[in-house]
Amino acid sequence: MKEQGKLRSERKYPCEKCPLASRDVFRKFKPKELDFVSRFKRGELFVDKGATVLAEGTRNPHLYTVLIGWGFRYKLMSDGRRQIVNYVLPGDLIGLQGTLMDEIQHSVEALSPMTLCVFERGELMSLYREHPELAYDVTWLASREECMLDENLLSVGRRSALERLAYLIAFLTSRARAVGMFNGTATLPITQQHFADTLGLSLVHTNKTIRKLIDRKLVRWRDGGCEVLDADQLAELSGWDPSNEGSRPFI
Amino acid sequence: MKEQGKLRSERKYPCEKCPLASRDVFRKFKPKELDFVSRFKRGELFVDKGATVLAEGTRNPHLYTVLIGWGFRYKLMSDGRRQIVNYVLPGDLIGLQGTLMDEIQHSVEALSPMTLCVFERGELMSLYREHPELAYDVTWLASREECMLDENLLSVGRRSALERLAYLIAFLTSRARAVGMFNGTATLPITQQHFADTLGLSLVHTNKTIRKLIDRKLVRWRDGGCEVLDADQLAELSGWDPSNEGSRPFI
DNA sequence: CGTAGGATTGACCCGACTCAAGTTAAGTGG
DNA sequence: CCACTTAACTTGAGTCGGGTCAATCCTACG
After folding, report:
1. Cα(B203)–Cα(B194) distance, rounded to whole angstroms?
2. Which residues of A touch B138 (CB under 8 A)?
């Protein structure tokens, strides 16, 4: 586990200039809400690639919203087996479980340098009291996560290795595009080990399955990342319908 | 798909006599909250075993809290493959996804006769406005669901067939006991097909795996259900820690 | 007594795992 | 600039867990 990143209380990204707000997918705050969120915000966290943002089994007094970068959420078994349960992208709220439960039950690691917006968990109740619409948004985000997990579970439980992989790539591409992470070609900053640990497959078999997608010219391997050549075909191959969400909230 | 159950607006279980309230696990309502929830409640739904409570791809104007009975939440692929993503027990809130997203992305089917408390989805926002504590509880429930899904995903992705099965049985037993569903011995009202579809295994292999647990005298098969003989051993076998939650909310 | 949904079992096969050896590419320090 | 290290990616060989197919059995129920 690499060391924690830097927590700063000065603002590189004050809420009025939130890099998320400029994205069309996200709904806009009302002035009062912006005001509240601005006070709710405690600072910014900058972490390097590979850093642990949140650790399983700890109590963390913070809630985070991802502003920039990629990360993944995972669980470990005592003998070292790892299951990645989901990925986190800009706009995602993390640490909610830790706020409501006692200890957090999963870890989060950065896949790229990340910038996160830090909130005080103790303040969450006052958000609920003063801004029911924002509270509703928090629930919306939790519900959306649940929806993604359902889909991931379907994938790991019932799809073949090739379908699973195709689904995962299409899913991540779709999510990342939705928040404007790619200009032209999509390249996922993910190693084959990450794929394997997400799909419930071994590294070796994952590699061989990726080869099949490469042979079909659906993806390419570049600079230690996966370049997506045809996301639509991938989605179709997996039997997944990437129904794009409309506008969505964030905190 | 069997027909829907009966929706009644007269109250067999008025909120003041909610069968959940008497269970110690659930937190108590304040008088004002009870009052609100009582108005929020639209009626009661009684469904038979095998009935579909919620159907994937539909818009459902209701939210439900399970009062009595077992059910399961699942997703289907177009070729018929089924993945059960979780089970629903008394105290569980279902249909929240349908309230926040457009269409619901999963179905719910009754494993036993069920009684559900019906709420109007349109009223949810007023709950958020008038009772922040209850809103917080809704989020808590969503977050708890997320936590269970993470664990299920770990199981399907990384545990062996025997471990998975042991985990599932221990998990369900623990949940059901927590809400006081068993007096003495625990018997899960679940067929081997359900187990298979939860674990991501074939029916045949599930059967053979159950046999191993029977040989170890950890479970027994009775009356078309699974009688749990040693939940602790099962949990240990699977490497799962059934850390019991303390008091919890419900709506 | 017939039927149907579940549970069981055996035979056979294949998808995915493990083990083992590389290869490649990107540092890093002398 | 080169030797060394390390992380990530490849590939082949052999094995095995779990899948499929096909019967068969049990038991509740009409």
Report:
1. 9
2. 139
- Return the residue of B nearest to A128 by Cα: B132
More confident site: B14 or A24: B14
Closest alpha carbon to B154 in A246, A73, A208: A73
CB B43 within 8 A of CB B7: yes
**Which nucleotides in chain D lie less than 7 Å from some protein C-beta?**
7-13, 17-22, 28
DSSP state letters, B26-94:
BPPPPHHHHHHHHHHEEEEEEE-TTBEEE-TT----EEEEEEES-EEEEEE-TTS-EEEEEEE-TT-EE
* Res. B239: pLDDT tops 80: yes
Residue range A2-12, pLDDT digits in tens: 445 777 777 88
Q: How far is B128 from chain A (nearest CA, A)?
A: 5
The contacts of residue A159 (CB under 8 Å, 6+ apart) are A167, A238, A239, B77, B81
> Mutating which of A134, A149, A163 best tests the B interface, going by the most B Cβ atoms within 10 A?
A149
Q: Is B206 on the interface with A (CB under 8 A)?
A: no
The predicted-structure confidence for A159-175, as pLDDT tens digits, reads as follows 999 999 999 999 999 99
Strand B225-228: give its sheet, edge to edge: B186-188, B225-228, B219-222
Q: Domain extents for chain A?
A: 6-151, 153-238
The reply to whether domains A6-151 and A153-238 share a CATH topology is: no
Cα–Cα dist B162/B102, whole Å: 38
Which of these, B35, B197, B189, B33, lies nearest to B110 by C-alpha position? B189
**Tell me: the pLDDT tens digits for A185-244?**
899 999 999 999 999 999 999 999 999 999 999 999 988 899 999 999 999 999 999 887
SS3 of A228, please?
Answer: strand
Q: Which amino acid is at A79?
A: D
CB-defined contacts A:B, below 8 A: 143
Task: Tell me the CATH class for A153-238.
Answer: mainly alpha
The strand ranges marked E within A95-161 are: 107-110, 114-120
Inter-helix orientation angle A132-158/A192-199, to 10° = 90
User: Domain A6-151 carries which CATH code?
Assistant: 2.60.120.10
CA distance B92 to B110: 13
CA distance B84 to chain A (A): 8
DSSP strand E in A111-152: where? 114-120
A48 close to A113: Cβ distance less than 8 angstroms: yes
* Residue B4: predicted pLDDT: 58
Structure token digits, residue A48: 């390097």
The correct answer on CATH 1.10.10.10 for the domain covering B152-238 is yes
Q: Measure CA B70 to chain center.
A: 6
Question: Could you tell me the CA-to-CA distances from B95 to A143, A152, B37, B62, B69 in Å, in that order?
Answer: 10, 19, 17, 7, 16
